[in-house]
Amino acid sequence: MRGPAEARDDRPGRSAEFVARGRALVPGLTVSLLVAVAATALGHLVPIVGGPVFGIVLGIVLAAAIKPGDDLRPGLSFAAKPVLQSSIVVLGATLSLQQIATVGASSLPVMLGTVVAALLGAWILGRLLGVRGDAQILIGVGTGICGASAIAATTAVLKPHESQVAYAIGTIFTFNIIAVLAFPGLGHALGMDPHAFGLWAGTAINDTSSVVAAAFSYGGDAGPYAVVVKLTRTLTLIPIVVALAVWKARRDTVATARIGSGAGFRWRSLPWRKLVPVFLVGFVAASVLDTLGVIPVSWHPGLSAAGTFLITIALAGIGSSLRLSDMRRAGARPLLLGAVLWILVAVTSLGLQAATGSV
Questions:
Q1: CB 64 within 8 A of CB 188
Q2: Alpha-carbon distance 341 to 121, whole Å?
Q3: Burial 86-125 (b: 16+ CB within 10 A, else e)
Q4: How far apart are CA 210 and CA 197, in angstroms?
Q5: DSSP assignment of 225-278
Q6: Which of 206, 138, 151 lies closest to 346, judged by CA?
Q7: What gap in Å lies between CA 343 and CA 185, rounded to an integer?
Q8: Which residues in the chain come in under a pLDDT of 70?
Q9: Which end of the chain has less neighbouring CB within 10 Å, N or C?
Q10: What is the reported pLDDT for 186?
Q11: Residue 215 and residue 202: Cα distance in Å, rounded?
C-alpha cells in the first residue's frame, strides 16, 4: 500500500502527462479552427450552402491536398468527437423539454418506420448481394439509427472482425458525405419547409454530424428540429443492441455447446456507456435548465451561433481526417448495400411524411 508521499510524487507525472496530451491536440485543433473560420465566412456569402457544409468540404480538400500527418490526428479527432458532442449540448440549452417532447412524439411514426425499413432492408438485400453476417448487421444498424455510433455500440456486443467494422464505417461515411452535399439542394427542390426538412434529415441521414451539417445549412428551424429527431432516433439503439446481445449469447451457447457453463448472456457485458452517450445526457440537462428559465431567452441567438460554429469546427476536423483509402477499402458489395439502404430509408421517410401529413 502506497503512502501519502508516494501519492504526492505521482501528481507531477500526471500533470505533465495531461499537459503533453493537451499540447498534442493543438496542431489539429488549430487547423480545424482555421478551416471553420474560412467556412463560416463562406457560409455568410452563400447562405444556401452554409458554414457547416463548407467546413466539411474545405476539410476534405485540405486532406486531399496536404495529407495531414500523425501530428494533426489527435486534434482532428478531438474536433470530430468531443467538440461535436459539446455543440449538441450547447444547442440543448436553446430547447425546452416541451419542444423536445413535442418534436419527438410527432416524429415517432416516421422515425420508427425508417428504422424498420433499414433493418429489414439489410436482412433481405444483404442476402441478395452476398453481404452476410456481422457486416450485414453493422451496415443495417448504422444506416437505420446513428451511423458510426451505432456501429461502435453494436461492435462492442457482436465482436466482429476488424475488416467488417472498417467496411461498415467506410460505407456509412461515404453516404454521410453524399447526404450532406445532396440533401439541402433536394429539400429546396422539393419545396420542404424547415420542419419537414429537419424531420427528413433526422430520419434519413445516419450519422449525427451529417444530420447537423445538412439541417443547419438548410436554414430556419431545420437544425434544432433535426437534432431532436436524431437524438430521439438514437435512443432506439438501446433495445436493438440489447436484442442483439441476447441473440449473440444464444448463438454462442449453441455453437460451443456450453449451456450453463457461464458463457451465456450477461447484462453487465452490455456497453451501457455507448448505449446512453454522455453528450445525450448533457443535452437533456441543458434543456432542463432552459425549461426552468435558468438560461435567459436573450441568450438563445448567441448560443445557437456558438453551437453552429462548434459544429463547423467538428466537421472541418472530420473532413480533414478523411482518407480516400478508407473509402476504397469498403469494397463494391458493402457500398452497394449501403447505397440501396440509404435510398430506401430516404424514400421511406418522405413517404411516411406524406402519409402522416408531416411534409
A1: no
A2: 6
A3: bbbbbbbbbbbeebbeebbebbeebbebbbebbbebbeeb
A4: 14
A5: HHHHHHHHHHTTHHHHHHHHHHHHHHHHHHHHT-TTTT-S--GGGS-HHHHS-H
A6: 206
A7: 16
A8: 1-13, 47-49, 148-149, 152-153, 156, 161-163, 165-166, 249-277, 322-331, 358-359
A9: N
A10: 92
A11: 8
Q: Cα separation of 133 and 172, whole Å?
A: 17
Looking at this protein, which amino acid is placed at residue 277? P
Amino acid at 320: S
Question: What is the C-alpha to C-alpha distance for residues 194 and 315, in angstroms, rounded to an integer?
Answer: 21
d(CA 269, CA 272): 8
pLDDT for the residue numbered 82: 84
- What is the pTM (predicted TM-score) of this model? 0.65
Per-residue pLDDT at 343: 92
What's the CA gap between 227 and 211, in Å, rounded?
Answer: 7
Q: Which of 206, 125, 219, 145 is nearest to 173 (CA)?
A: 206
For residue 145, CA distances in Å to 204, 352, 357 come to 9, 17, 23
Rounded-to-integer distance, Cα 181 and Cα 290, Å: 32
* Nearest Cα residue to 189 out of 341, 58, 45, 350: 350
For residues 219 and 328, what is the distance between their CA atoms, to the nearest angstrom? 33
| Grid coordinates of 101 | 417532447
CB 24 within 8 A of CB 70: no
Number of C-beta neighbours around residue 145 at 10 A: 27
Size of the chain, expressed as the number of residues it contains: 359
Q: Say which residues have a Cβ less than 8 Å from residue 284's Cβ, sequence separation at least 6.
A: 92, 100
- Check if the beta carbon of residue 275 is closer than 8 Å to that of residue 145: no
